[in-house]
Amino acid sequence: MNSFVVNLYPKPNGTAAGQNLTVAATAVQFDPANFDYKTNAFFVTVHAAAVIVTFDGTTPTASNGHVLPNAWYGWWSKDAVLAAKLLRHTGTSAQVTISQFTN
């Protein structure tokens, strides 16, 4: 049996710009108005400082959320980006950047 595999990896969504989010002392979220309807995956990077993130609707705090260190990077689904609330981990504000991808 033979199978033909075209592409197993997401492709950059050339019609949708990325977003940069400054993460400071108040929890912030990405703006879904800038997401393309074809986007289903995001490449996420953290710069300058660590951040705390939650995905369950709660506000991140020092005792609630996942800590992503400076220079962290990874893939998130569209649902994860829509749900993510981010807060700086220490006194230094961070920058979180996302780029949009499709299948």
Describe the protein in words.
- The chain is mainly beta.
- The model has no long low-confidence stretch (mean pLDDT 91).
- Strands 1, 2, 3, 6 and 8 form a five-stranded antiparallel beta sheet that branches. A three-stranded antiparallel beta sheet has the order 5-4-7, with no helix packed on it.
- The chain is built from one helix and eight strands, in the order ββββββαββ.
What fraction, in percent, of the residue positions are helical? under 10%
Question: DSSP helix count?
Answer: 1
- What shape does the CA trace take? elongated
- What is the β-strand count? 8
| Rg (C-alpha, Å) | 15 Å
Question: What distance lies between the first and last C-alpha atoms, to the nearest angstrom?
Answer: 25 Å
Low-confidence stretches: none
Task: Give the biggest beta sheet.
Answer: 5 strands, antiparallel
Q: pLDDT average, as an integer?
A: 91
How much beta, percentage-wise?
35-45%
Report the structural category: mainly beta
Order of helices and strands: EEEEEEHEE
